[in-house]
């Protein structure tokens, strides 16, 4: 199988609509969470501009443990009471941070990161983990980015059924 990167339209909403279709096609019929997290990380990193890190943390029943990602090596374990990822997992709400330096609780895996989006992953009320995106640009993530990446996260969760 060969895979070529999709050419996406300019408008953010249309871009994400197409990206979500590509994400679904990429992992179609595959239930393995490591395989799907790896391919979705690669797809998002290659198509969403200005990201320095994108990847998954999985909940092991006690804390978040790093899973497949694209970017520099990252913090391995994050307790639910720490960091932006912990907040997303604990509250089950997407966390969007325009300036991570202004967040005392932010865990700096890469000092170059300036803004962050973390989407919780849950299935039937059960915490699976989080999808974490970092950017070196302040306030990189818009409402369109948040909606689009929540939709990508939903494609991942659906694939586990
Ligand atoms: N910054 C995150 C930690 C994960 S790394 O960014 C990959 C946080 O504060 O939870």
Comma- or semicolon-separated keywords:
binds methionine sulfoxide, six-stranded antiparallel β-sheet, 35% helix, single chain, Beta-Lactamase, 4 helices, 6 strands, globular
Structural class comes to alpha+beta
Output the CATH class name: Alpha Beta
Proportion of residues in β-strands = 25-35%
Sequence of strands across the biggest β-sheet = 3-2-1-6-5-4
Do you know the CATH architecture? 2-Layer Sandwich
What is the count of β-strands? 6
Give the N-to-C terminal Cα separation. Answer: 24 Å
Order of helices and strands: HHEEEHEEEH
CATH fold call: Beta-Lactamase
Contiguous runs where pLDDT drops below 50 for at least 5 residues: none
Q: What is Rg?
A: 15 Å
Write out the distinct hetero groups bound to the structure: methionine sulfoxide
Number of helices: 4
Approximate helicity band: 25-40%
Q: Which geometry do the CA atoms define?
A: globular
Whole-number average pLDDT? 94
What number of structural domains do the residues give? 1
At the fourth level of CATH, the homologous superfamily is GAF domain
Q: Major sheet: size, sense and barrel closure? A: 6 strands, antiparallel
Tell me what you see in this structure.
The protein is α+β, with helices and mostly antiparallel strands. The protein contains four helices and six strands; from the N terminus they run ααβββαβββα. It has a single domain, classed as GAF domain (Beta-Lactamase), CATH 3.30.450.40. Strands 3-2-1-6-5-4 form a six-stranded antiparallel beta sheet, with helices on both faces. A hairpin with a 3-residue loop joins strand 1 and strand 2. Helix 1 (12-26) runs parallel beside helix 4 (143-159). The longest helix has 17 residues, at 143-159. The radius of gyration is 15 Å and the shape is globular. Residues 53, 74-75, 78, 83-86, 106-107, 109, 113, 116, 132, 134 line the site of methionine sulfoxide. Methionine sulfoxide (SME) binds next to helix 3 and strand 6.
